[in-house]
Amino acid sequence: MRYLFEEYAFDTDRRELHRGKGGIRLAPQVFDLLYYLIRNRERVVSKEELTNAIWNGRAVTDAALTTRLRVVRSAIGDSGEDQRLIKTLPRKGWRFVGLVREAQGPVGGAVVAERPVEPSRPGPALPDKPSIAVLPFQNMSGDVEQEYFADGVVDDIITGLSRSKSLFVIARSSSFTYKGKTVDIKRVGSELGVRYVLEGSVRKAGDRVRITGQLVDAATGNPIWADRYESKLEDIFDLQDRVTMSVIGAIAPRLERAEIARALRKPTESLNAYDYYLRGLVKVHRWTREANSEALKLFCKAIEFDPHLASAYGMAAWCYVQRKARGWMTEHAEESAEATRLAGKAVRLGGDDSVALCMGGYALAFVTHEFGDAAVFMDRGLVVNPNLAWGWMLSGWLRVWRGEPELTLEHVAHAMRLSPRDPSMYGMHGAMAYAHFLVARHGPASLWAEKSMRENPNFLLAICVSTASNALAGRPEQAHRGLTRILECRPDLRTANLRDLTPFWRARDLALFAKGLRKAGLPE
């Protein structure tokens, strides 16, 4: 067997390592160590496992193991600083993370069979408490239009689980990256860093709905709980509560019944309002002007059916945040007043609704600059649901505007851990860039902004902070390229109206930002 990675060929039959046409001599132990890491590249290998496999369980000092690993890395052009091919996970072990292809035949000979093998990305370490990811449920109704309904069922289960402080719950936005894909549960558990994965299906026919669920141990792939629930559609909220309670009971049997009951809340008593709310969520995540307008109409329709649905007010207010940030507002005074009204209703009604408190709170900060109240409401929302990744990310942005960069770093890092595969990761990386910018760390600010722009080339906030950082760091070419991109995205942006895009609370922060963009060439 040959393992091919980068320009290297690792021949296990001949016990040879080649780079191009040249051979690289390896001591037997070094060869065995590299072989073991490559063979087990889908997981982290511990020190104990390596000593058992390579040294037959004999006592090996940390220094001796470190020396061997250094030799292995050197042989394949890696280092402890780069960790391009062999990654060290502190207190956990090591993992070969390079892209590997398996091939039959000797080096230089004809390839009999070749299979590309792309390892999964190294996952985060398991939390101290029970952790779970809820995958999108299959829509078994045969009706594509009901896809939103199946997704909404999963949303509510995630929300219900998240309200238990005894659980670590992966955010919807990371779980839903697996939607429509055939998944390997073990790999999902590794990539998301969870002990358990919940999968299932929803079948809706007429006035009846059937929900099936299966909880799987991600380490072994073995199911540890499965059940099926059937009910009339009018009882859908009771049905979802029963599923959520069963899952919590399966993975945390010692939780008190009273705590479980407190963890569950029905979002609304009106199915019509709930339908409109779910449809609005689908639209609001599409990030276009047209979809934003449709989402706003749907959230307002949900409010019309249920005037007490706090989360609908919060999401409607969020639509206006999008409109202001992207320059889509046409009647600024009227739209800002409506955003303020919706946000105020969201936080007043949302005593135990984390979405209402976080989205409404952020809208108060971004649209009307009520930073103090916004922090109070968002902090309360994160107490209600400490697993709301979007809430932690927006709280990080709030801290950017309030001039609290260290809190930004802390809150965004927590959001990234809760949702390690979030499609909105560009927003998290963008907030990191601003946190570094505020304390004049222009190098790290540029790097985080570049990460953000790689994920979303049209994210204007990231383009702006990249441009300002490069200008202040004395990199005029990069700054000029950034300015060109800014004016392509937002032709009307000037230093005079920067606060529409970046509502800094402290005058010195806005002045620093304007200074960087002015130096890059942004007109007054």
Report what the structure shows:
With 524 residues, this protein is α+β, with helices and mostly antiparallel strands. It has 3 domains: 2-117, Winged helix-like DNA-binding domain superfamily/Winged helix DNA-binding domain (Arc Repressor Mutant, subunit A, Orthogonal Bundle), CATH 1.10.10.10; 131-266, Rossmann fold, CATH 3.40.50.10610; 404-524, Alpha Horseshoe (Serine Threonine Protein Phosphatase 5, Tetratricopeptide repeat). It contains 21 helices and 14 strands. It has helices at residues 28-39, 47-54, 62-75, 147-162, 172-175, 185-192, 236-251, 257-263, 271-284, 289-305, 310-325, 332-349, 354-368, 371-384, 389-402, 405-418, 425-438, 442-455, 460-472, 476-489, 507-520, and strands at 2-5, 8-11, 16-19, 22-24, 86-89, 93-96, 100-103, 114-117, 131-134, 138-139, 168-169, 196-205, 208-217, 223-232. It is globular and about 75 Å long. The N and C termini lie far apart (65 Å).
The main sheet orders its strands as 4-3-2-1-7-8
Write the CATH architecture name of the largest domain. 3-Layer(aba) Sandwich
Let me know the number of strands: 14
Radius of gyration of CA atoms, rounded to a whole number:
26 Å
Main CATH class of the largest domain: Alpha Beta
Strand portion, in percent?
A: 5-15%
Mean of residue pLDDT?
A: 83
Q: What is the helix content?
A: 40-55%
Report the biggest beta sheet as strand number plus sense, adding barrel if it closes.
6 strands, antiparallel
According to CATH, the fold-level topology of the largest domain is Rossmann fold
Per CATH, the superfamily of the largest domain is: ABC-type transport auxiliary lipoprotein component
Unreliable segments (pLDDT under 50, ≥5 consecutive)?
Answer: 107-120, 250-268
Separate helix tally: 21
Helix-and-strand structural type: alpha+beta
Distance between the termini: 65 Å
User: What spatial form do the alpha-carbon principal axes imply?
Assistant: globular
Question: Total domains, how many?
Answer: 3
